[in-house]
Design goal:
CATH superfamily: Immunoglobulins
CATH architecture: Sandwich
Helix content: 10-25%
Radius of gyration: 27 Å
Shape: elongated
Length: 123
């Protein structure tokens, strides 16, 4: 009797699999949004000279999540971020003020927003 129950269970399992063999497998957990890239250049106002070695932070305005990068030798930076709207800030020194700062930036999947430039006035 016990062997009969085991065989019946196996038969039901095989029959169930045969009924659903062509259905797609669905992942119950959705993947995170891919997002895009924010990029720009940090330069000095007086002579349009690049400002290397500065921390640039993109903060997602709804969630408050922070993503950072450091400017390169040419003052350029890139930050990969998930889909969202971001406020972008650059690290200033005590004798500096911002002459130009980019507005909030909305990033969709695959976006490259490369015009997020800063201009710093050094006193």
């Amino acid at each position: 009797m016990r062997l009969c129950n085991v065989l019946l269970g196996c038969l039901l399992l095989v029959a169930s699999m045969a009924c659903h063999w062509n259905e797609p497998v669905v992942d119950p957990t959705p993947s995170a949004p891919v997002g895009g890239t924010i990029a720009g250049i940090v330069s000095a106002a007086s002579s349009s000279v690049a400002v290397p070695g500065r921390k640039v932070t993109a903060t997602e305005v709804k969630k408050g999540e922070h993503y950072e990068s450091t400017t390169g030798a040419d003052g350029g930076y890139t930050i990969k971020v998930p889909v969202g709207t971001y406020k972008i800030e650059v690290e200033l020194r005590p004798t500096e003020t911002l002459t130009k700062q980019p507005a909030q930036t909305h990033i969709n999947n695959g976006d490259l927003d490369s015009g997020r430039d800063f201009v710093i006035n050094v006193k």
